[in-house]
Structures are given as C-alpha cells and as structure tokens.
Write a structure and sequence with these properties.
This protein is an alpha+beta fold. It is elongated, with a radius of gyration of 25 Å. The C terminus is likely disordered. The protein folds into two domains: 86 residues, 2-Layer Sandwich (Alpha-Beta Plaits); 37 residues, no CATH class.
Length: 165
C-alpha cells in the first residue's frame, strides 16, 4: 500500500507570529517539511522590528496529520501559533452552492409562469412523462457526487433513451 500524499483537501492555513531574526522562516519550513507537510503558500501579514506575522498554507495527508504539523510548530522556539484555519471548512461556511434564476422575473405574470401555478403544470407534465424532466429541469446539466473517505463515486443524470422531446 502506498503512502497518502498531502493534498489541498486536508490543507490548513496557520497564522504564525515569528521572531524577526535571520533563519526563523527556514526553521518553520524545516519543521513543516520534517513533519511531512507540503507548503503551498507563504503570505506576509505584518512586520515589525521584533516579529513577523505570516500565513502559511500547508497541505497534509489527513486531519490528524494537519494537527501533528501544527503541534510541531507550537513547539518551535520563537514561534507562536496565532490561529489555524481548515481551508475546506472555510469554503463550506454558509454553503458553497448558489441558486439563481436563468430567466428574469420582472412581472407578476413572469412569476406565475415560473413558480406557482406554472411550476405545478410542469410537474404534472413530468409525472405523465418522466423523460420531459431532462428538457424542463436542470437535471440534464447536473451531476451528483458522493465522496466517502476511501473512494469517490459520481454519476451524471442522463435520459434513459437517446431521443429528445
């Protein structure tokens, strides 16, 4: 079995306050590398005579590995971990998918055709002929992915036959 490589799926951004002395960033990078982390980005946040604050993005193999890297950084002399952010969870805050109208709704008539009672008519038509769902809804352009820890199984909705209506 091969070792799992660090990836963005398990990336963290660590804000560090580092003593402003030559070689300190090298020590931080060495500690991350020795712990098996992969540095993706180093951003300067603030610099004073005594301290430099940096955001360092690190790819890890899994959540435990990411925490191991952070713990290693906490033990470095002259380095203080100010904050740690899991980039995947940050992306999901407030949801990540947005729904919007493809057709502008400007009048009450538009609203009646797009929503109730218009949408009910479309639903009834689909109930009578399920193939119409591919023409009348977004199902033909969307795919669904279920991603368990060990594998990813994805499928795309497609009509049962090649005929269109």
């Amino acid at each position: 079995m091969s070792a799992v490589s660090p990836s963005a799926s398990y990336s963290v951004t660590v804000r560090l306050s580092i003593a402003n002395r030559p070689g300190m960033l090298g020590r931080v990078a060495m500690a991350i590398g020795d712990a098996g982390g992969d540095i993706g980005a180093v951003d300067l946040v603030e610099s004073t005579r005594d301290r430099i604050v940096r955001d360092i993005t690190i790819n890890s193999r899994d959540s435990d590995h990411g925490q191991h890297i952070v713990n290693r950084l906490k033990r470095l002399a002259g380095v203080r971990v100010v904050n740690t952010s899991d980039r995947t969870f940050l992306m999901h805050l407030g949801g990540k998918i947005e729904v919007g109208n493809k057709v502008p709704i400007r009048t009450r008539d538009d609203l009646s055709m797009a929503y109730t009672p218009g949408v009910a008519r479309v639903c009834l038509a689909i109930r009578e002929d399920r193939q119409r769902a591919f023409a009348l809804t977004i199902i033909r352009t969307r795919s669904t992915c279920a991603s368990p820890a060990s594998s990813a199984a994805c499928w795309t909705a497609a009509p049962a036959s090649s005929t269109t209506r």
